[in-house]
């Protein structure tokens, strides 16, 4: 996926938390705060929050003990989020899995990766232009 190439460089923000669903709200709040700095609309911010929650749920399904790592790449009106944790591969049937359908509806792009002993899910979001003129 060529448009997700922004995730190839060093992340602008990196957050490491225990791989436990109790900490997902921290990542959702962080995502919303970063999106607000990029002038995402309230609807875009809420979509991002939901997608990050779903991404964490998918990654944590196969997670073993260790840290949940969230990386954020910030561009003008675009954000790429990568959530990863040590764990076994997570198999998703894109036509059957509700969480995957939610992700692909809310995000511009979604990609699930298994590298070594790590499960990672990358999402890209593009903010809609703010309406001007009242």
Question: What features would you highlight for this structure?
Answer:
32% helix, 3 helices, 30% strand, 5 strands, 134 residues, globular, alpha+beta, five-stranded antiparallel sheet, Heat Shock Protein 90, disordered N terminus
Give structural notes.
The chain is α+β, with helices and mostly antiparallel strands. The protein has one domain: Histidine kinase-like ATPase, C-terminal domain (Heat Shock Protein 90, 2-Layer Sandwich), CATH 3.30.565. It contains three helices and five strands, in the order βααββαββ. Helix 1 runs antiparallel to helix 2.
Summarize the structure.
With 134 residues, this protein is of the alpha+beta class.
Which helices and strands appear, and what pairs or packs with what?
Elements: E1 13-18, H1 24-37, H2 42-61, E2 67-75, E3 78-86, H3 98-106, E4 109-115, E5 118-126
Antiparallel strand pairs: 1-2, 2-3, 3-5, 4-5
Helix pairs in contact: 1-2, 2-3
